[in-house]
Structures are given as C-alpha cells and as structure tokens.
Amino acid sequence: MAVKNRRIFLKQTSLLGMGLITAPLSLTKGKCSLTPPQTQGPFYPLQFPLDQNNNLTVIDGHKKAAFGETIVIRGCVLTEDCQPLRARVEIWQACASGRYNHDYDPNPAPIDPNFQYWGYATTDDQGKYSFITIKPGGYPVTDDWVRPPHIHFKITAPKLPPLITQLYFSEEEKLNQKDRILQRVPPHQRNLVMMDLKADDSLKVRNGQFNIILNQTPELV
Ligand SMILES: [Fe+2]
C-alpha cells in the first residue's frame, strides 16, 4: 500500500471509529478475565520515534510505506467488571523481517527504515483504541527457538498498576506451541493474548481484536 493510500486508509478507519468491534469480551462469571502479564523483553525502545501516533506503517516525511502486510488491531481497555478505562496503550514490535530497531538486537535481518516500530494510542470514553501496523516477522532467539510473530503491549491507566504483555497470532500455531514466553502463560489464559486476523472488505486489510483487562488491585509496595 502506497504512503498516500495508507494515509487515506487511516482517515477512513478514524471515520469508521470503533463501531466494528462486535466480538464478545472474555467473560467469566459476568466479569472480564484479566489479561495475563508477560515479560517486557529486551527491545523496548531506547529512543522514541519523532512520529508518535497509532499508525506504524507510515513515517512523516518518508516517501515509502513500511514493507509487509498491513493489519489493524482494535480493542477495548476495561476493568474486571468490563467497565471502560481511559488508558494509554503503547506497542513495540519487530518489522516484517523480524528485526527490531534496537541497538541490542543481534538479528542480522534488515531493518525497515520506513517502519515506525513503536507507537501509542489513547482510549476513548468507551475504552476503545486502534493501531495500524505491519504483521511482524518471527525471529531467532537460540538455535532451537524462534519467537513467533508477536506485538509487545504496555498499558497505563491513572491509579492502576501498568500492564506489560505480548499479543500473538492464532495462525502461527506451530511457532506459538514452542514459544518459551507464551508457554509460561497458563494454558487456560493463552486465548486471552491470541488474536485472529480476519479479512474485512470495508478496511481492505486483515484486522484483529485484542481486548485488554487491567487489574485494579493496587500494587503492594
Ligand atoms: Fe519481541
């Protein structure tokens, strides 16, 4: 998708708002199930991009858009009682080749100079947020471990402990099953950090939903 088209596409998705979120929330006994935390990993940005928004596929001033498959992620940030939260949602991830824009990433895969790698969104009064990004590539960690495509999330809301977690793609079953980070999540909670990508004629790109449920228990000091 060319830069111009992606900008038009971003406008269209803004106009669409979040009205297309129809998937049911993860309800347990009338409550929303807490999103399990996961490790932050080593590649949280050391420097943040100048272009700071929720569209990681286009960088201001660049003629080319990011390489790879554009996807849309939409969801809500909610309490355990399924009430919407005003929150800041940060994401960071590898580009389509599986490389982070980070000094300590040893992966020899090429960096994509047109990918934003990090972005943030703020939720509206219904708790809704959205991102336009690229489906990340997997990357090797050891000789016998390849991390599946995943996106790192950090969610902060006033007066609540922050949540750091990772989101996976259900279509990457083989790599997901062997991933040492995902396997630390209790089996019955893994569906809470798993996203289905679905075609959507109105958006013309695949999109998925990730609802995030924050723990309201104050942090013990
Ligand atoms: Fe990662």
What does this structure look like?
38% of the residues are buried. The strands form 4 sheets. A 5-stranded mixed sheet has the order 5-4-9-10-11, with no helix packed on it. Strands 3, 6, 12 and 13 form a 4-stranded mixed sheet that branches. A two-stranded antiparallel sheet has the order 1-2. The termini are far apart. β1 and β2 form a beta hairpin. The chain is mainly beta. The protein is globular. 9% of the residues lie in helices and 27% in strands. The model is unreliable at 14-24 (pLDDT under 50). It has one domain (3-40, 49-213): Aromatic compound dioxygenase (Protocatechuate 3,4-Dioxygenase, subunit A, Sandwich). It contains 2 helices and 13 strands; from the N terminus they run αββββββββββαβββ. The site of fe (ii) ion has 5 residues, from β9. Residues 41, 43, 147, 150, 152 line the site of fe (ii) ion. It comes from Gloeothece verrucosa (strain PCC 7822). It holds the Pfam family Dioxygenase_C. Residues 41-215 form the Intradiol ring-cleavage dioxygenases domain. This is Intradiol ring-cleavage dioxygenase. One of its GO terms (molecular function) is protocatechuate 3,4-dioxygenase activity.
